[in-house]
Design brief:
Oligomer: single chain
Strand content: over 45%
Distance between the termini: 41 Å
Radius of gyration: 16 Å
Number of strands: 11
Order of helices and strands: EEEEEEEEEEE
Shape: globular
Structural class: mainly beta
Number of helices: 0
Length: 137
């Protein structure tokens, strides 16, 4: 069993599974950045977001969980229940994490941390308001 070394993710509003293992991505955030109009108060933000995590290589079956950490290192979404994922040869392994109500607590760089076995895979994304001064990011 070899853990993945190649992975990536998409941030969007939703993912719909179709026939033939096709996925329809809804409301894709290009660049994994979520921008709000200038002056939007962070405490007013509640999102419905979905993370699509893809593992390209590796082989095996692992215990997995995930959490979201805000810019100051505080858990924005606590550690999930443990799941089992399997990666077979010549196939991608995909995890779809849908969060129907994500209460944003601070602007800046957030991290989705997905753990397979004991290895963390960190994926960064930004939540900011347009024209926000660097000092407030």
């Amino acid at each position: 069993m070899a853990l993945p070394t190649k992975s990536d993710f998409l941030l969007c509003e939703g993912v719909r599974e179709e026939k033939g293992k096709k996925l329809t991505i809804l409301g894709f955030y290009a660049g994994n950045d979520i921008k709000f109009p200038k002056g939007t108060k962070v405490e007013d933000i509640s999102l419905s977001i979905t993370f699509l995590v893809r593992f390209k290589d590796g082989l095996g079956k692992w215990k997995a969980f995930w959490k979201v950490v805000g810019p100051k290192g505080v858990e924005a979404i606590p550690k999930s229940q443990e799941i089992i994922i399997e990666k077979r040869e010549d196939q991608y392994s995909i995890i779809i994490l849908q969060i129907p109500e994500y209460k944003v607590k601070e602007y800046g760089t957030h991290k989705l941390i997905t753990t397979l076995a004991d290895k963390n895979y960190e994926f960064e994304y930004e939540i900011n308001a347009d024209n926000m001064p660097e000092s407030l990011r």
